[in-house]
Every structure is written in structure tokens, then in C-alpha cells.
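User: Second chain of the day. Same drill as before.
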Amino acid sequence: MGRSLEFLLAAVLIVLGALFLALNLTGITVTIESWWPLLIVVPGLAFFVPVFLPTGRQAHKALSALAIPGCVTTTVGLTALYSSLTDRWEAWTYLWTLPVGAIGLGLITASLLGDWSPGVTRAGRRLLGLSLLAFVILCVIFEVLIFGGMARLYWPVILVLIGMLQLVWVLRPRRRSLPAHRGKGRV
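Assistant: Same format as last time:
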């Protein structure tokens, strides 16, 4: 067994041990009804195993692409696990942005592990950044304004503000258009 694979196995054992210890200390019971998303997370993590196997340089460069579906599948599984454990399935109104961002994270990871072009890393950063921005904006909209019970207060205020902006737009002084130059000379 190669050194990278031994390291990966050790990391998995440490994470599993910490997880089971936390479950025992908190009293959370593990049932298939609430922990089924682990059936998505584990295959997602399995995508990373070939990436860390000792191979030649060219094969390693190609295998690093498996980090992309690995990131996406793992993120889908973790977001489903969050929803399953908290019973907050309505959170998917904004959680959907995280798997999109995972594509960017996968591009960054594959690019760094496989020594790909810096353009791939930049594209991954942009996608990840836009996804996280969308996550924050949608999270605020849905959690504060819609789900949070504040909609009774905020939506009327927002409508009044939009109406005021429209009124200012309509009543703004309009520029007079300048007469066109009728001469034949230079302007």
C-alpha cells in the first residue's frame, strides 16, 4: 500500500472515530432514516482515492480530474445530510448553490493536484465565489425575509421603497436634448 493511500486510510479512520465519539457524547442516534445521505457522501469521497494512488505523472494529471465529481457528489450528500438531520428541507431554496460551487472547488482541487493551467484555477475560483455570493444572498432572502416571519414587516417596506424609487425616477428632471449641429464645418 502506498504512502498516500495509507495517509488517506488514517484520515478516514480519524474522521469516523471522531464522528462516532461525537454521536456518543451528544446522544444522537444513528438510523438509516436520517443518515441515508451518507450513501451519497461515501461514493463522493471514493472519487478521491485514485487521485492519491501512486501513479506516473501523466496518469496523475488525468486522475486529478476525479476531484471534480468527488467534490460535487460529496457536497450534494453533505447538504442532504444537513437537511435530513435538521428536517429543514426548505433550506434547499438556497442550498442548491453549494453543489454548483463544488464544481468550482473541484476545478481548483483538480488544477492544483494535477498541475493544470492557471486558467482552470481562476475559473474555479470565480465559480466558487459566485456560488457562495448567491448562497449568502438567497440565504438572507429566504431565512430572514420569507421563512423568518419577518416577511410581514419587510415586504411592505420593500414595496414602499420600490414605489418611492419609481416615483423619483418619474419625477426626475429630464435633460433637454441639445440641438443638432447644422453647420458644415468642424465641430
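The longest helix spans residues 118-146.

User: Great, on to the next one.
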